[in-house]
Structure formats: C-alpha cells, structure tokens
Amino acid sequence: MSLLRPGDTRWSSHYRSLVSLCTLFDPVLDVLEIVKDDTTLVHAKRSEASALIMRMETFEFVLLLHLMIKVLAITNELSQALQRKDQDIVNAMSLVKVSKVLLLKMRDNGWDNLFQMTSEFCIKHDIDIPDIESALALQGRTKRRGTVTHLHHFKVDIFYAVIDTQLQELNDRFSEVSSNLLECMSCLNPYNSFLAFDKNKLCEFASYYPSDFDLNDFVMLEYQLETYIVDVQSDHDFLNLKGIADLAKRMVEKKKHIVYHLIYLLVKLALTLPVATVSVERAFSAMKYIKTTLHNRMGDEWLNDCLVSYIEKDVFDSIDNESIMIEFQKLRPRRMIL
C-alpha cells in the first residue's frame, strides 16, 4: 500500500490516489504530524504540514474526498476507454451515456448515502461532525448574503455543484452533433451479426463529409449498403468480428474494400475520427517534451503556460521579441531595462 501520485493527464490516476488517501487516512496524518514536529525542517514545510492536518480533519474535507471518489468512479471506465490506443468509439459512446445516467441518478438520490458514508468515516477517525441545521460561519463579504446552513453549503454549494460541473463537461465535450456522429458510426459495428446496422444513419454519417462524398456517391452509397449488409450477414467470415477495426481488416482480407469502396471509406473515416481530434493529441504529444525528468516537479500553472507556448508556437512566432520585452517591463518596476 502506498499513497499514489496523481498524473496531470490521467484522471484514472486521480481516482486511484483518492482511494489510496481514503484507505491510508490515519497513516497520512501520522506522517504529517512527524513533519510538523520535526524541528530540523524549515518553518514553511512544518507550517504546510500543520495546515494540511487542520484541513484533513474537517467534515468538509472528508465529504469532498468521498464525493470525488464517487464521481471519478462513475467516469473511470469512460476515461480509460478514451485513453486506450485501440479505443472503441462504440463502447466509449455507450459509456458516455452510462456516466450521464449515473451522475443524474447520484444527483437525485445520492446525497443521503454520501452523508451517511462521510459521517461514519468521521466517527471512525474522531473527526467532529457539525450540526447540519446550524448556521455556517461566513467570512468577509459573504456575511451580507444572509444566513447559510451547513446543509445548504454541503448539499448545494458542494454536492450539486460538483455533479453539475461534471455533467456540463460531458455535455460540452459530447455535444448533440458529436453524439449523433458517434451514434451514426456505431451502425458500422459488426458485433452480433451487424445488429446495429442502420442504412439511414450511415447515409447521414456520410453527409458529415461532403468533401469525400459527392452527390453521385450519396446515391450509390444507399444502394451499396443494401447489397453490403446481405453479403456480410451471409458470410461466415464476418460473423465473429468484435469491432470496426476487425471489420476493416476482414474487408481487406476478402477484397471487400474494392467491391464496397464507399462503405470502406466510411469505415476508414470511423477509424480515423478518434485521432482527428488534433487539439487533444497535440497537448499529449507536447507533454513529453515539456514535462521531462528535469521538470518533473513543475507545477500545474507553470506547466500549462509552457504547454500553451509550445502548442501555439505559430502564434507566438508572429509576435516580435521587442513587444514581449516591453510588456514584461510594464508589469512591475525592475532594476534594469530588459
């Protein structure tokens, strides 16, 4: 057992880290106590350890810990599916729907279970549980907003806010258009004797690529799909295929890619779509050049700034050095002119 370090680009690593922290909660506090009492360390390290202990031994921290474990557990399979090299878009799209359903179910009916789990954890580790009906001590300008109870803060400001943010991210990244595109792609899935085949959706799939299919191709595709489905469903070589990638290989092996060239083009477009999301791929590719072994302690903010500069280097190349130096000179007084 160890406290796993989360990675910057893998949400599943954050999930494992939180599970480890929940399991090793007492040992982590013990280590922080040792650091806090170690007079050989600098004052900043001891103060940081003391602040972490105070933060961890609160009901709100435990609530957030269990909440994030539940949320990341729901999206863990989806996250891993999207990160696989041989990712299956059909299964990934199904996991998106499952994640949304589970998050909505958790939002509607999951508060009581989360509160009970958090309370039991606090009792086990001798952490004070506040009276949820009592008023929350507000600070600063928030005092002007009136009285807010602990229940409202935990349930609305934390529980609902986290789940709504996660749902919004899923809806933004898998919008109606992209979801419809992926659903059309799923009709190519050869699983279970091409059970998902839908001629109309595949024609709609082709309509997303007007530069690859002209008007004649659209007419020919409709008739070619009718012949294709009868052919492959009656061919034993196409019965036990598991995914679109297997379908593409088998079509080439049996020379079907020549006979059904328009359908094979759809298959190729379906297979290349995951790597066509260039913005994500560029970020992952740039990561290995920026965060090297010499920079493994780089913070998230500094890493993000470096990545933006590297990924968008075409934009930065268009800015002359003189204007950059002038801008930095204006930020604050300096001993010398840049």
From TrEMBL:
Q: Name one GO molecular function term.
A: protein dimerization activity
Alphabetized UniProt keyword annotations: Membrane, Transmembrane, Transmembrane helix
UniProt xrefs under Pfam families: Dimer_Tnp_hAT
In terms of superkingdom, the source organism counts as Eukaryota
Q: Where is the HAT C-terminal dimerisation domain?
A: 254-314
InterPro entries registered for this protein in UniProt: AtLOH3-like (IPR055298), HATC_C_dom (IPR008906), RNaseH-like_sf (IPR012337)
Segments passing through the bilayer: 258-280
Record protein name field: HAT C-terminal dimerisation domain-containing protein
> Which species expresses this protein natively?
Acacia crassicarpa
